[in-house]
Structure formats: structure tokens, C-alpha cells
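C-alpha cells for chain A. Residues wanted.
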């Protein structure tokens, strides 16, 4: 009986509602355009998140688990798919001159985008003055005495002493 009382029934209800919405979306996918199915699913997800929002999102536990598994699966699959497609494209190019041009263009655009990123970062940093006053922090760090550092070292516990 205690096990039934400890179950978060609202979280279970949210999971059941989400699974039913997945089933509805699956049926809709065969009848309407895929773009609309994606838009409808985004709206359904937002409504589900707003309706069952709680202070620490305890009702979304199961959906968060499913979402984490989905994102990790996509992340694990994307890199190999891209690698295989790039290798396949290079294998299909039999002309060395084409490969040289593609490689040169790739390096050129990589350098150009890196240079733009550097310039934007410097301009943004100068405009917002990020790091202003950091000299005082570094002066405080340099002013720490060796006795203070030794006292902190004695407070530390190494991993082999942890239980």
C-alpha cells in the first residue's frame, strides 16, 4: 500500500497523456504534411509543459527521461552519419582537381568564419568591457600568503581517504 502512495500519479498521468499525444501525432503524420505535424507537436509539447508545470518540474520526470534518451540517441547517431556521408562524397569524387578545389574552398571559408568570429568577439568584449576590474581580483590572488594556502591544503581530503 505504501508503494502506491509513494507513486507520483500526476507524473504518471503526464506520461500517459504524452504517449496518447504521440499516438495522435502518428495517425496525423499519414494524413497531413510533415511540417504541420512538427508544428502541432511543438504546440502540444508547450501546452503540456505549461499545464503541468510545477515548482521543480517533478511532474515532468518521465518526459524528461524520455527526452534525455532521445537527445542522447540523436547525438550519438549524428556524428557517424555525417562522417559516413562526407567519406562517401569524397570516395565518389574521382577527380583530384575537384577534391583540391573543394578542400581549398573549405579551408578558406573556415578561416574567414574564424576571422569574423574573432572580430565580433573583440568588438563585443570592448563594447561591454568584459573583464574590467579583473586586475583587483588577480592582485588579491597574488596577495594570498603561503600559510593560508597550507591551511587549505590541510583541510582537503584525498580520494583514497573518502568513504
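Reply:
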Amino acid at each position: 500500500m505504501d508503494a502506491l502512495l509513494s507513486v507520483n500519479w500526476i507524473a504518471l498521468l503526464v506520461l500517459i497523456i504524452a504517449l496518447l499525444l504521440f499516438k495522435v501525432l502518428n495517425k496525423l503524420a499519414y494524413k497531413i504534411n510533415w511540417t504541420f505535424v512538427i508544428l502541432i507537436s511543438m504546440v502540444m509539447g508547450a501546452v503540456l509543459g505549461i499545464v503541468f508545470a510545477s515548482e521543480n518540474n517533478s511532474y515532468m520526470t518521465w518526459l524528461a527521461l524520455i527526452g534525455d534518451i532521445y537527445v542522447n540517441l540523436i547525438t550519438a547517431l549524428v556524428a557517424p552519419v555525417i562522417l559516413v556521408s562526407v567519406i562517401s562524397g569524397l570516395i565518389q569524387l574521382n577527380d583530384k582537381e575537384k577534391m583540391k578545389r573543394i578542400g581549398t574552398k573549405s579551408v578558406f571559408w573556415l578561416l574567414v568564419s574564424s576571422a569574423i568570429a574573432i572580430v565580433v568577439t573583440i568588438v563585443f568584449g570592448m563594447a561591454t568591457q568584459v573583464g574590467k576590474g579583473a586586475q583587483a581580483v588577480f592582485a588579491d590572488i597574488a596577495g594570498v600568503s603561503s600559510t593560508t594556502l597550507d591551511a587549505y591544503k590541510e583541510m582537503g581530503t584525498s580520494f583514497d581517504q573518502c568513504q
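The radius of gyration is 28 Å. The mean pLDDT is 82.
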